[in-house]
Amino acid sequence: MAVPQVCYEDDMLLALNKPPGMPAQPDPTGDMSLLTWAEERCGQALHLVNRLDRPVSGLMLLAKNAQAMAHAQQQFRDGGVCKEYLAIVGGMLPASEGELTHFLTQNPRTHRAYAHAEECSGAVRAVLRYRLIGKGERYAFLHVQPLTGRHHQIRAQLSAIGCPIKGDVRYGARRANTDRSIYLHAWRLTLQHPVSGQMLRIEAPFPQADALWAACEQALQAGLS
Length: 225
Fold this sequence. Notes:
Blueprint: E1 5-9, E2 13-18, H1 34-42, E3 47-48, E4 57-63, H2 66-78, E5 82-89, E6 97-107, E7 112-116, E8 124-135, E9 140-146, H3 153-160, E10 184-192, E11 199-203, H4 211-224
Parallel strand pairs: 4-10
Antiparallel strand pairs: 1-2, 2-4, 3-4, 5-9, 5-10, 6-7, 6-8, 8-9, 10-11
């Protein structure tokens, strides 16, 4: 399995690019987790500020002390962190860009979220913005910005509009990827540094040696130029 890449580090924070397939923290499989890997690398206990699903790649933020953890987590709770993802999806988008609002319920036995168009008992509101950045022969490349931080939010909301993420069979993709990854990448985080107050913008490189991600990156760069 690939190892994480360091995207940012100082005496308060560590940002890593998690490979797809690596668990964020120790789980019953016993596979090496990002948290364990990072603690062994740093030689100290660390605190996970955010988490990514196992099949998802991209940025995870860890704090090196309780002060940094509290400050960063408060920003996540208050919506002060700008989270940007890239997704490769099937299906037909309703528009080239838009804002999606759903009400999510959870099934704890299957660890699956369900997106409802109307408010219902036990549901939480989930909002995201998406923008089409390019297309391949069978898939669309999206820039996605979740405005709320709900469990499986991006996966469930894109599935709800008929555009499941490639490889995400739990949410409607036709076929799994051979490595059980899904084409969702936590690309960029923008947040305030817990000590200096400086705004940090941290990016995670795309997964390597993958033609679809290479095409997505090319489309993104063309749109930014």
